[in-house]
Automatic annotation (TrEMBL):
GO terms for cellular component: cytosol. The gene is paaA. The lineage of its organism: Bacteria, Bacillati, Actinomycetota, Actinomycetes, Streptosporangiales. InterPro entries: Aromatic_CoA_ox/epox (IPR052703), Ferritin-like (IPR012347), Ferritin-like_SF (IPR009078), PaaA (IPR011881), PaaA_PaaC (IPR007814). This is Phenylacetate-CoA oxygenase subunit PaaA. Pfam families: PaaA_PaaC. It comes from Sphaerisporangium rufum. One of its GO terms (biological process) is phenylacetate catabolic process.
Amino acid sequence: MADLEGHFDRTIARDQRIEPRDWMPDGYRATMVRQIAQHAHSEIIGMQPEGEWITRAPSLRRKAILLAKVQDEAGHGLYLYSAAETLGADRAELTDKLIEGRQKYSSIFNYPTLGYADVGVIGWLVDGAAICNQVPLCRSSYGPYARAMIRICKEESFHQRQGYELLLTMMKGTADQRAMVQDAVDRWWWPSLMMFGPPDDASPNTARSMAWKIKRHTNDELRQRFVDMTVPQAAVLGVTLPDPELRWNPERGHHDFGAIDWSELQRVISGDGPCNAERLARRRAAHEDGAWVREAAAAHARKAAARAAREPQEVAG
Ligand SMILES: [Fe+2]
Ligand SMILES: [Fe+2]
């Protein structure tokens, strides 16, 4: 036992990856399952706010882009459920936990999308914040998660650019279009900052996750990085970020920003955001509607296995 633990500690210390076959502390396994499941759920629920706009896209080009983007998010969810399965988690059980409200997904998806500018702002700010969070996870200590994250981050960066390009186009349009963009920025800015989680002094698990190299930076470090990255992009776009205290601090070499309303995050996390009930209801309905597909796939797999067992020569041939 001491041997196994020593091997785990040395692997982490050398910055090497923990793989599914390796021994790992129960706490590490549970933390990874929770984090990966929550991430997978976020990708899947995250299809809803933008998916609502697929049928209302303003052109065929925008529709094709949005369809591809939402489909990417479904793919991210599937890689991540597979990564969770390498830890012994059961995918059906994780889905049950999600639809029964026993596992969380990112609170950002509990806000409504009120217009097409929201699609652009989600790409720019929400996918942008996701990138800040996820790029360091490409070096996360758990191998399957880190490797899934490499591909996911490439697609997320494409998502961010498509959002920004949509906003640039709208900002070159009519006064109404510019007002739609500003309104969407006003609504999504603060929730985007909350995506990095509670402040470091209220985040009791951060130290352990950092020691295990699951996490590489604290919530506040990543939030600061996001603000510093976004301010110049907002200037190019010509929108105002809705924070009168936002300004460059030459001494810190970073932007200062106003206080975040943590009671709002708490409220949304605990189920009382604008769309929590709607998101879960839709996910639950999709799961129930899809039962026949899962049953058919399982029946097909059973038949194929039985056929292979009966006719081994055919398999060999
Ligand atoms: Fe994604
Ligand atoms: Fe994305």
